[in-house]
TrEMBL record:
Recorded name of the encoding gene: Haus1
Full protein name: HAUS1 protein
Biological process according to GO: cell division; centrosome cycle; spindle assembly
Subcellular location: Cytoplasm, Cytoskeleton, Spindle
Coiled coil: 138-179
Native species: Motacilla alba (White wagtail)
Primary localisation category: cytoplasm
Keywords linked to the UniProt accession: Cell cycle, Cell division, Coiled coil, Cytoplasm, Cytoskeleton, Microtubule, Mitosis
Position of the signal peptide: none
GO annotation, cellular component aspect: cytosol; HAUS complex; microtubule; spindle
Keyword Cell division on entry: yes
């Protein structure tokens, strides 16, 4: 069936080569069935159109006979204005898709089109309203997006500045640490050199720092003693003078 259909389809032209297997044959058979069904539908449509054409031609001849015999109106006998009006009437009837050219049919069709027009207009207004709302929302979203982009740029710039500052601080810290290590090494080397030359160990940096700490601790211990000593400095140097002082204070009281 597929082979005969392909030969009929290409009408004497060699059929293009294809891989013959179960899958390709099934696909071609399905296409063949769809094609044949479409051909049948088209043939039915053509027959229906031919039938309608025959009916319309017969009806046209019928009305031509009536117009010619009853009213004496033949093709080309109408005045130009009348022919134009008749053509407009026919075109209007075809445009409105009415069954006949009666006023009732025209009024019904016009009312239907007017109603459809109002529905379309109402729908268009509704769509315009939705469009305005969406436009406002879109503009608002664009403004928010723009603000966010500006904030992101500011944040990036701030982060870059902070990163640059952090790098500078890190370099400074590294420099100070290296400098401190270098000074410590120099101090140790100098102390070792001084010790080698006979410097007293008590004059080294560590010994001086330790002595300073011990001196500070002694100052803290002496502070209460100084306060207590100050209270004794106001006393008379002898007991008789102290008794005189006590007697004078008693008299003042």
């Amino acid at each position: 069936q597929v082979t005969l259909w392909l030969k009929k389809l290409y009408e004497g032209v060699p059929v293009p080569e294809y891989e013959v297997n179960e899958r390709t044959v099934d696909i071609l058979h399905e296409i063949m069935e769809c094609n044949e069904e479409t051909d049948r539908d088209i043939m039915l449509l053509i027959e229906d159109m031919k039938d309608r054409t025959s009916k319309y031609e017969a009806e046209a001849e019928y009305w031509q006979d009536i117009l010619g015999e009853s009213l004496g109106l033949f093709e080309g006998s109408l005045p130009e204005d009348a022919a134009k009006d008749l053509t407009d009437l026919v075109e209007g009837a075809m445009e409105l898709e009415v069954e006949d050219t009666s006023l009732t049919s025209f009024y019904s069709a016009i009312n239907d089109m007017t109603l459809e027009m109002y529905k379309t207009k109402s729908k268009n207004e509704e769509m315009e309203h939705k469009l305005r709302i969406l436009t406002r929302k879109l503009n608002s979203a664009l403004m928010v997006e723009k603000q966010l982009e500006e904030d992101i740029e500011k944040l990036k710039k701030s982060q870059e500045e902070q990163k640059a500052k952090a790098e500078v601080q890190s370099k400074n810290m590294k420099f100070l640490e290296d400098k401190s290590k270098d000074l410590k090494i120099r101090i140790c080397d100098a102390e070792d050199e001084l010790v080698a030359r006979g410097l007293d160990q008590s004059l080294t940096h560590e010994a001086l720092m330790k002595s300073s700490e011990e001196l500070a601790a002694l100052y803290k211990e002496i502070e209460p003693l100084k306060t207590e000593l100050a209270s004794y400095l106001d006393l008379p140097p002898s007991i008789p003078l102290a008794q005189v002082k006590v007697e004078e204070a008693r008299k003042e009281l």
